[in-house]
Structure formats: structure tokens, C-alpha cells
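sorry for the late reply, my laptop died twice this morning and i had to redo everyting from scratch. anyway the thing you sent over, i finally got around to it. pasting the sequence first so we're on the same page, its 94 residues, then the predicted structure underneath. double check i copied it right bc i was rushing
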Amino acid sequence: MQSKKMDKLIAACGLYCGGCSYYYAKGSKKSQCPGCWESDEGCEIRECAYSRSLRLCIFCSDFPCSKLYDLYSLFYIHFDQVKKDFPEGVRQEG
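ok and here's the structure:
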């Protein structure tokens, strides 16, 4: 059984925020990302899941939908941005 903190780190789309460079480095100057469910930024996938009273898209009768296909097809942009923002990689403090 997952803890509540772990649940908050799993985005509606199925991505694990705790494994993202921007979440992991949230204490650095590079990022302050609180994770999907705590973010103030709009996300049409998260809002869609919320409107259907779902925690994860996998429980939706329309899974997988075009919104998910569109998101995952753009991941090369995310990875390129991570390389720019963290040229030395994300370092664990201590």
C-alpha cells in the first residue's frame, strides 16, 4: 500500500513526480516544482481526471486518450529542457 505522500507524487497521467529533475531539485534555485497535484499551473490532463473524479487516467473508460498521446509524444522537449537546466545533472545534497 502506498503512502499518502507517494500518492501525491503520482500525476494523473501516470508520471512519477518524485523521479523528475524539477521536483527532485525543488530546493535549488533551478526549480520550485511541488508536483502535479500541488501545482498551481494548469494541466488539462489533471483537470480532466479531477472532473471525472479519478486519481489516475488508467481508471478512465477513455484510457488512453489523445491528451495522453499528445503529452507523451512531446517528452523529447522536456528532456532537452532538463539537459539545459541541469547541465551537470541533479546532485543530491549531503
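The chain has one domain: 8-85.
thats about all i looked at so far, will dig more tmrw
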